[in-house]
Design goal:
alpha+beta; Immunoglobulin-like; 6-stranded antiparallel beta sheet; 4-stranded antiparallel beta sheet; 13 helices; 12 strands; 47% helix
């Protein structure tokens, strides 16, 4: 073999050796065409859209297809329930007018406002807050702090079915003159959260002028100025007349009895005022003009009877018979005076939605109320008639027992009526103790009378 043939054979051998030692290449991956890739992308997007719409309940997501753990599916959206629309009812606002030219500009001045609305027809008792915003008109120059005000007043309890309600607000410490005022009810939490469906009164506006403050403070819808002093004075006159008739029957000197009783009435008025100031200490810090209002019947009875007893001892009059002939007239006078309380806006009963309630005012809130003043007037009248029957038909013994029994019966009935009044309790057990004491005294007086 020649040299050239040997070299050719060696090259062929090396080629065969390299082809045997090298690893075989895998077949090239088959790439999809652009058309096929577009179909796959659109299919995947459709799958994800269906998953989002149904919350993951219709097939695997892209993460599931890739072998990865899928996250929690998104819950479907829930639409929030719409809150019921707040229904408003008609309301009005009026300014208190003082039509008296003699005191038109007299100081101090105040602005009286009365907001009138209708209570809800049914449901539970509810509160209502009213915001009063006012500004003085005709102000020259820059308005001062006393040329505008904002006051908030809350009615703690409105009884449904009570009909129309009035809220009277007095504004002190402002500049005298003409004012424009707006009253805006403030919805409570139950209405704002949609848990209460009762209507609320609408917004109301008015314009008015300030007036003499002592008159503005006592004027309100349902309040008759002059009713209380007029009827109380009439009751005192009736009491003195009945006492004089019974005193002449015993017989007793009528003129000394009348003079002594008249003096006792004046002292009783002072006692009524002192008793009121002791029970209401805040009134003592509100000035002389505000101290002039407010009296208590308890103080009148205590002071007047004490003066009558002391005067009888000094004048040489028999104390027991004098007290007996005084009892019927005293009770008749209180029966008439309590009617004055009803029309004057004092000693008011609790608001009620019952049909037997009577519309009256306590000079702040006018509403249908329990007529406690009329109940107490009836009580005094009945006890007075019983005392009159006993005194006019005989001479009860021992002397003075009719007065004690009649007063005890009146106090007992009055304590039973106290829970119907719209007044807070000053003591926890005062009413119970007073009623029990009055009941025991009444029983003892009746027992003594029957034995005598």
């Amino acid at each position: 073999m020649g040299r050239a043939e040997r070299r050719l054979a060696e090259r062929q051998q090396r080629r065969r050796t390299r082809s045997t030692a090298a690893p075989a290449r895998p077949p090239a991956a088959v790439r999809p065409s652009d058309h096929e890739a577009g179909h796959a992308v659109r299919a995947e997007l459709d799958r994800q859209k269906v998953t989002r719409t149904t919350g993951g309940a219709s097939g695997p997501t892209a993460r599931d297809a890739a072998g990865m753990p899928s996250s929690a599916t998104t819950p479907p959206r829930v639409r929030a329930a719409k809150r019921p629309a707040v229904v408003t009812t008609a309301a009005s606002l009026h300014a208190t007018s003082v039509s008296c030219s003699a005191i038109e500009g007299a100081a101090p001045q105040a602005l009286g406002l009365t907001y009138t609305f209708e209570a809800a027809e049914d449901g539970e008792a509810y509160p209502l807050t009213i915001r009063f915003d006012g500004r003085r008109t005709g102000v020259r120059g820059k308005p001062g702090p006393q040329d505008a005000f904002t006051a908030v007043e809350t009615i703690e309890r409105i009884e449904p079915g009570g009909g129309h309600v009035t809220l009277t607000k007095r504004i002190d410490g402002i500049s005298p003159g003409d004012w424009e005022v707006t009253a805006t009810p403030v919805p409570d939490a139950a209405i704002r959260m949609g848990t209460a469906s009762r209507p609320i009164p609408s917004r109301a506006s008015t314009s008015g002028a300030t007036g003499f403050a002592p008159l503005v403070r006592v004027r309100a819808p349902g309040v008759r100025i002059g009713a209380w002093p007029g009827l109380v004075g009439s009751g005192a006159a009736v009491a003195l007349a009945v006492q004089a008739l019974l005193a002449a029957r015993i017989p007793m000197p009528v003129t000394p009895v009348l003079l002594l009783s008249l003096l006792a009435c004046l002292i009783g008025l002072v006692g009524a005022k002192v008793y009121y100031l002791v029970e209401h200490p805040r009134q003592r810090r509100r000035g002389l003009m505000r101290m002039a209002s407010g009296m208590c019947i308890q103080g009148f009875i205590l002071a007047a009877i004490a003066a009558l007893v002391i005067g009888a001892l000094l004048a040489g009059l028999p104390v027991g018979p004098l007290l007996d002939v005084t009892a019927p007239g005293l009770l008749f006078g209180m029966a008439i005076g309590r009617v004055g309380c009803f029309f004057g806006g004092c000693c008011a009963g609790r608001p009620t939605g019952r049909r037997w309630g009577l519309w009256s005012s306590d000079r702040r809130l006018g509403a249908r109320r329990v007529p406690t003043q009329l109940f107490e007037s009836t009580l005094a009248l009945l006890v007075g008639l019983a005392a009159l029957t006993i005194v006019s038909t005989g001479s009860p013994q021992p002397a003075g027992v009719v007065f004690v029994a009649a007063l005890a019966a009146y106090i007992l009935g009055r304590q039973l009526l106290f829970p119907l009044r719209d007044l807070p309790r000053h003591t926890s057990h005062g009413r119970v103790l007073t009623a029990a004491t009055a009941g025991l005294v009444l029983i003892a007086a009746l027992a003594v009378t029957s034995l005598g």
